[in-house]
Every structure is written in C-alpha cells, then in structure tokens.
Amino acid sequence: MQRIAESELIINSRGAVYHLNLRPEELAHNIITVGDPDRVNLVSQYFDSIESKFQHREFISHTGFVGKKKVTAISTGIGPDNIDIVLNELDALVNIDFETRQIKPELTSLNIIRVGTSGSLQEDVPVDSLVASTHGLGLDNLLNYYRLEQNEQENQLLQSFVTHTQLNSNVCYPYISSASASVLKHFVNGYHQGITVTCPGFYGPQGRVLRLGIQNPQLIDRLTEFTFGQHRITNFEMETSAIYGLGKLLGHHCLSLNAIVANRIQKEFTKDADKLIHKLIQQTLEVISNSF
Ligand code: R1P
Ligand code: URA
C-alpha cells in the first residue's frame, strides 16, 4: 500500500497531527465540533471527567467521559476552509497508521456532531429555537475540489436551486450532502428540521449590507422561498455542507445542530445566546451518553 509522504500528512515532534495537535490515542470516537474556541470549555464542563486538553492555533480540544461514553469537544474556528483541515485530520487520526503512513485496512467511522450558531431564514423558525440540518447545501465551493457524487434527486434539487436563486457559476457551484440518518433520528423532538445553507462568509455571502453593495440583493428572499418536494431551507451558517460532504466521503456519521441566534426575516437577534447554546450542548451530550 502507498506510503503518505511527510509533506502530505504533517506529524509533529510529539507524534501528533499538525493542526489539531492530537495523537491517535488522544481522540474519542464521539466528537462535538464547535466554531468558537471558548465553547470547548462550555462543552467539557458537563463531562464527568476530563482526560486531556490540547491546543494549537484555534483548534482547542478537550477529551473526557460523559457516563461511559468517551467524547472529544474540538473547536474548528469559522468556515469551510477550517473544516477541510479538521475533518481530514480527524479522519487521519483513526484511519491512517502514523507509523507506516499507510491507510489502515479496517476503517473507523466517527460520530461527528456540530454544535453551532446560525441565522434562520424562516418566520416560523424563531430565535432561540434549534434546527437539526437534514442537508448541507454548500455555496462555499469546498467539495468541488473533491469527487463528491450527488444522486439524481440531489442533482435535481441543485438544478432547481440554481434556477430559483440565479446564483450562477460566476459566484459558485452549489453542492449538497445529507446528515447521517442514524444520528439525525435522535434529534427530532424539540428540533426544526430542514436544509441548512452554508456560506463562505457572514456578511455579503449571507446578504448582509453594511457599507458594501452585494451582487444578489434578492438572495435572502430566494433562499426563504425555495422548496423542493417537502424540503425547504431553514437556516444558514458557515460549516455544515463542508462537514456533511467530507464526512460522507470519508465514511463518518455527521450531524449539524444549530442554535438559532438570529432571524433574518423578523430581523431579530437572541437576547441570551449563552442559555440557548448551553441547552443544545446538554441535549447533545444526553443523546451521546444514552443512545450512542
Ligand atoms: C459566524 O458568527 C459563526 O457562527 C456560526 C457560523 O457557522 C460561523 O462559524 O457557527 P459557530 O457558532 O459554531 O461558530
Ligand atoms: N452564524 C451565521 O453564520 N449567521 C448568522 O446569522 C448567525 C450565526
């Protein structure tokens, strides 16, 4: 089997993968990703015990136990480019032998749950509610660098989306990937479900106008109005499609959970983001502890 060169998979002097600064034995197979490095503490404060803590750049990780389940909480920073690093390195930690630098003959699937904040695109998905993303629809282009194959229904949805939004190839080639059904099924009661659109920025790419004009002023309305069969877009943020696309290609079980802090239709922002995030973290850990 082919050996992966030092330049392609960088392992530091501690024997840890370069960006995440984690060795294979320092990662749990149940993983919670958060955008904000400070949020890792909020997750691990609910652990029954903490085994290890590491940091390199914006990638902070705490690993410990919730009941009998080992969990790693790790920060990704903002955006799909960071997700490219995090998903590839998490996968390398379980599926590449760091001694031989070869892909292991038996592959491991990780459970990866994003606990993030998000903006709602629907009036009936108010601030302080929670969304479990059935799909990640990427406007960020990351998965166009990989060989993501979309099925017939996904291709039809994308075609209809491009026609409806008028987002042409000067801006992006949208892609779509879905949540792991086996993880999503645990997040039904108390959660809205819908398509989450992932944007490569917070301002222009999410239709926010401060001082700069934007190419597609109709974008928010078009996203809100879009339907395909029983599917509609509930919200947008900046990581879900990248997690779903790479997770699917690498064989991991991924879910994105969104704490709705802004409603772009009602033009509201939550008064207590911390309370909402704590609730989502506690509910996620409860599912991991009881059902995984
Ligand atoms: C933007 O403020 C950030 O918040 C959302 C977006 O996806 C983006 O990362 O998620 P997090 O709260 O997890 O960072
Ligand atoms: N995160 C985003 O990306 N957008 C929002 O509107 C809120 C949180």
What report would you give on this structure?
Its EC number is 2.4.2.3. One of its GO terms (cellular component) is cytosol. One of its GO terms (molecular function) is uridine phosphorylase activity. InterPro entries: Nucleoside_phosphorylase_d, Nucleoside_phosphorylase_sf. With 292 residues, the protein is of the alpha/beta class. The protein has one domain: Nucleoside phosphorylase domain (Rossmann fold), CATH 3.40.50. Helix content is 26%, strand content 29%. It has helices spanning 39-44, 80-95, 152-165, 181-184, 219-225, 240-250, 273-291; strands spanning 30-34, 49-56, 59-66, 69-75, 96-97, 102-103, 111-120, 130-138, 175-178, 192-198, 227-228, 231-237, 253-263, 268-269. The strands form 2 sheets. Strands 7-12-10-8-13 form a 5-stranded mixed β-barrel. Strands 5-6 form a two-stranded antiparallel ribbon. Helix 2 runs parallel beside helix 6 (240-250). The model has no long low-confidence stretch (mean pLDDT 98). Bound molecules: 1-O-phosphono-alpha-D-ribofuranose and uracil.
